[in-house]
Structure formats: C-alpha cells, structure tokens
Amino acid sequence: MEFQRTDDAIWSAIDAETNRQEEQLELIASENNASAEVIAAMGTSLTNKYAEGYPNRRYYGGCEHVDEVEDIARDRLKQLFGSDRANVQPHSGTQANVAALMALLSAGDKVLAMDLNHGGHLSHGHPKNFSGEFYEFHGYGVEEDTGRLDMDRVREQAMSLRPKLILAGASAYSRSIDFKAFRSIADDAGALLLVDMAHIAGLVAGGVHESPVPYADVVTMTTHKTLRGPRGGAIVCNDVEWLKKINTAVFPGGQGGPLMHVIAAKAIAFREAMTDDFKTYAKNVVENANILAETLVGRGMRLVSGGTDNHLMLVDVTAQGLTGDVAEDLLHSVGLTCNKNLIPYDQQPPMKASGVRIGTAAITTRGLNGDDMRTMGAWIADLLHSPNDDSLAKRIRGEAAAMAASHPLYKGQAAAAR
Ligand code: DSN
Fold first, then answer.
1. Which one-letter DSSP state was computed for residue 344?
2. Fewest Cβ atoms nearer than 10 Å: which of 111, 182, 240, 252?
3. Active site residue 52
4. Which CATH architecture does the domain made up of 40-273 adopt?
C-alpha cells in the first residue's frame, strides 16, 4: 500500500526505534523480532474492519474475508499445539488470562498461582490487577536454596488450600515446568488447571519444552515472545464446554471488536512456527541460553537456580554491590537491553530489584550463536564486576555494535512495514 509520510514527529520516532532494534542487542526475555511478513500484515486494510463476534456469527456485515483470516488462524493454532479448540482474539496475554479466569471461576474463588515475587505475572493475582481484585489468590514459590519449584511443596499447599483453580506458568522462571505434576496435584486437590505458557509458547511449538496442552483444562499464551508473532494473546483448550465459556468471556466479556490485522499476523506467525526452521530456532534459543548462563556462572555471577532450561535466566547482582536498576542502565549504556527483575526472596523494592532478567529469544532470531554467547557472557560479567570502568564500557560498546551490525534484523529484507 503506497503512502506519503506526513507526520514527521511520529515517523522519526518509529525510524529511531527501528534503528535502536537494529543497532542494539535485545536481551529482554519477553521480546522478539517478528518477521517482516508478520509486521507487514499489521499495516493492512484489515485494521479498518469491525468484526465483533466469531466467524459466520458477526454483528457486522462485510466480514467474509476476515472470517477466512480468523478461521485460518484458529486452525493453524490448533494444529501447532495439537489442541481441539482455539480462540485467537485476545489483544494480549493479560486479556487472555482475563477471559480464562472469567470462564473458569466465580468472583471470590480461591486460586493457587506462582508468587509474583518468585516469577509469577501481574495477571496471576497482583493486588492491583483485576485478578487480585476479583479472586482470592494464594502464592506458591521457589525454594530459597535451590531457586526451583518443589512440586511436593506445591502439592502440600494445594491440599491444604483446596483452590478452585491452580495456575501454572511464569514470567521469570528459568526452569522447565512439570505440567504432568501440576495436573496430578490439581486432580488430587479437586482443582482446575490453567496454564499460562506466554513465555515458553515458542519453545513448546518448537518441541523443546513439554506441552501443557494434554494436561491443562485451558492454556493461555502471548504470541509475541518466544512464539515470535505479533503482539497479542491466544487461548487453546480441548473441551467444547470450556471453549464456549472462553469465547463468551473474550467477547463480549472482556473485549469488543477483534483486531483483525493482528489476527492475520498471528496466522502468518503460526505458519512460520510449524516449519523445521522454527524447530531449529527454538533449539538454538535454549542452547544459547545455556551457554550464556554457563559463561556467566563461570565468571563468578550468581544465577537464580544456577542456570536455565529455557530461554531466560535471572542474574543476581547483589554480590557486585549493585541493584537491578543500576545493572539494567549499565548494560543499556553499552547496547545490551535487558530489564531489572526481582529475584526470589528479594529485599529490594520492584523499581530497584536485585537482579536482571536476560533472555535469548531475540538475539537468536538475528542469528547469534554459541561463540557470540561466550563473548556476550564475558562482556556482561566484566561490566557487572567493574561498573565504573569507562574504558571497558567503551570497548564493549564498540564490540556490541559490531556484533549487531554483522547480524542485521531487517536490513536488506523487503520489509513493507519499515
Ligand atoms: N511483560 C511481560 C514480561 O516481560 O514477561 C509479561 O507480560
């Protein structure tokens, strides 16, 4: 679609952000770089179309083409995760969780979910989030000595609490999650099981993390993290009765018109995620995370749980006399973008925190490999050990920029959306 740029203020900010992504190395564990085709689908005429309802049951005329798009997206999502049912309309992971909780619970019901300070998510019971407002959330957490979930402890808590729902899934947990054990605990405690696989959806799709779909009553996800699609949410389940409730909870329960341009982009991403290339990508994400974690530990950094099984790690910076916010700024100053993060049993407030969360989903997309991880691990450890060494920072800034330049993201591609 041809167009003239007239809004200089906005286009210059968009160009600057595109350059930032191209020139810096993205270590935020929840971010990724969608393909040019996924991005292009979001800048299309589909953004104009109202389509409240579901395919062939809309509240607007002229939906024949967007119906086709949504049908394809749902079919691909079901195929990707081997589920019987799917809803691709949630605008985000939180919206997907709103719908799942509305479908599965009544106000005031008890839920057992991962403690926010141990790696859980805002929509898993933060007191100021709708989840914490409307339901009675209780937290399970990782063990202080191992940094890992102890499923026997989760079982004890579930048996004494008898929640209506157990929620598995996290935003900052670097170990595999045992969905089979969660199912068995839920069954013994008489609870439903909801899994939020937002962070690991791409690893599940790529076959490098166990799938929760055979075990959970309902699975929510985001489409833009390891799954590498457009920003958005989605839900899968196997039971037709749950799907009916979920569909009603998404629309009209929590949302109005679906974002059809984003649903088209989701469909493209789901197709990409079915390829052998994506399986290789998912394997490389985990391999890169492992090498980066080993390099950091080898250079004297403490990682929560000692390492990683997935795409992320939590680096404790207290021994270096730093807080997470300072470490985040320091890494950003050399072109490595990450985020401060609470670590389990943290004594700092969330805006300071004692750690940084680092992920390999985006840097693997741009083709960085194990040798690059060894180099990057050395940069990060050296910087965190010597935060005031300006000449070290200057050298690393130059080397990081060179590494980014030698692995372009979109440059050279016919990226319609750029
Ligand atoms: N904000 C996301 C993350 O960083 O993990 C979760 O929604």
1. T
2. 240
3. yes
4. 3-Layer(aba) Sandwich (3.40)
Q: Evaluate whether 114 touches 167 at the Cβ level (below 8 Å).
A: yes
3-state secondary structure of 112: strand
Diameter over CA atoms, the chain: 64
With bands split at pLDDT 50, 70 and 90, how would you rate the model's confidence at 413? low
Q: Which two tokens stand for residue 4?
A: 């003239």
pLDDT of 318 strictly over 80:
yes
Q: 259, 185, 180, 247: which is closest to 215 by C-alpha?
A: 180
Q: What is the DSSP letter of 230?
A: S
According to the model, what pLDDT value does residue 414 have?
A: 44
Q: Cα(391) to centroid of ligand 1, in Å? A: 33
The residues spanned by each domain of the chain are 40-273, 277-415
DSSP lists the bridge partners of residue 110 as 136
C-beta of residue 111 within 8 angstroms of C-beta of residue 135 = yes
- Ligand 1 centre to CA of 30 (Å) is 6
In the reported structure, the alpha carbon of residue 63 is separated from the centroid of ligand 1 by a whole-number distance in angstroms of 33
- 353 sits in the region (left: phi over 0; alpha: psi -120 to 50; else beta) called left
Return the CATH superfamily for domain 277-415.
Answer: Aspartate Aminotransferase, domain 1 (3.90.1150.10)
| DSSP symbol at 190 | T
Tell me the helices (H) and strands (E) count for the chain, helix number first: 15, 15
Contact residues for 105 (Cβ-Cβ < 8 A; gap 6+): 111, 135, 164, 165
Question: pLDDT of 363-408, one tens digit each?
Answer: 999 999 999 999 999 999 999 999 999 999 999 999 999 999 999 9
The answer to whether the CB of 356 falls within 8 A of the CB of 327 is yes
Instruction: State pTM to two decimals.
Output: 0.96
* Binding pocket residue ranges, ligand 1, CB within 6 Å: 30, 93, 121, 171
Is 196 designated active site? yes
Candidate from 27, 225, 310, 313 with most ligand 1 atoms within 8 A of CB, to mutate: 225
Which residue's CA lies nearest to atom 3 of ligand 1? 30
Q: pLDDT-based confidence at 124, cuts 50/70/90?
A: very high
180 as an active site residue: the answer is no
